[in-house]
Design brief:
Blueprint (H helix, E strand, L loop, with lengths): L1 H7 L1 H12 L12 H25 L1 H25 L1 H4 L5 H43 L1
Helix pairs in contact: 2-3, 2-4, 2-6, 3-4, 3-6, 4-6
Length: 138
């Protein structure tokens, strides 16, 4: 029983790792390089997929709470990381700009997870409504 519970939370941990690892990517997303955009697009797809899986394993309410907690925790860790290692994360930038940039990165990936959570739940509810309509027609 305990092993099954731990596997359910593995997707939440994976989402947190995706969000935290995004701090180490290039901050120049819209410089015209297709590679930077492709990396962020793939990270967004992974976050969406994690949200989808979280809905299937933990449910809408509990999964939403966990994703929100991961967003907050990852943002706080990013603020500390950017504050303490500011020379690595932006030599010529102000620390407030870096804190905002890295926090918005975490929020963006977290909301992609919430979007995956919502889409999976909406599709499930749509199937349930179709089943109920079929039952009422019979």
């Amino acid at each position: 029983m305990m092993n099954k519970i731990n596997l359910r939370y593995a997707t939440v941990v994976l989402l947190g790792l995706i969000m935290f690892s995004s701090n180490f990517l290039s901050p120049k997303l819209f410089t015209g390089e297709i590679l930077n955009f492709a990396v962020w697009f793939i990270l967004s797809i992974f976050a969406f997929s994690c949200g989808w899986i979280i809905t299937k394993t933990l449910g809408w309410r509990h999964g939403g709470k966990l994703i929100f907690a991961v967003i907050v925790a990852s943002s706080i860790m990013s603020v500390f990381l950017v504050s303490f290692f500011s020379e690595y994360f932006g030599v010529n930038d102000l620390i407030t700009e870096n804190v905002i940039l890295y926090t918005l990165r975490n929020i963006t990936l977290g909301t992609m997870g919430i979007f995956g959570l919502a889409v999976a739940e909406l599709l499930f509810l749509e199937r349930e409504i179709q089943k109920l309509v079929k039952q009422n027609d019979e």
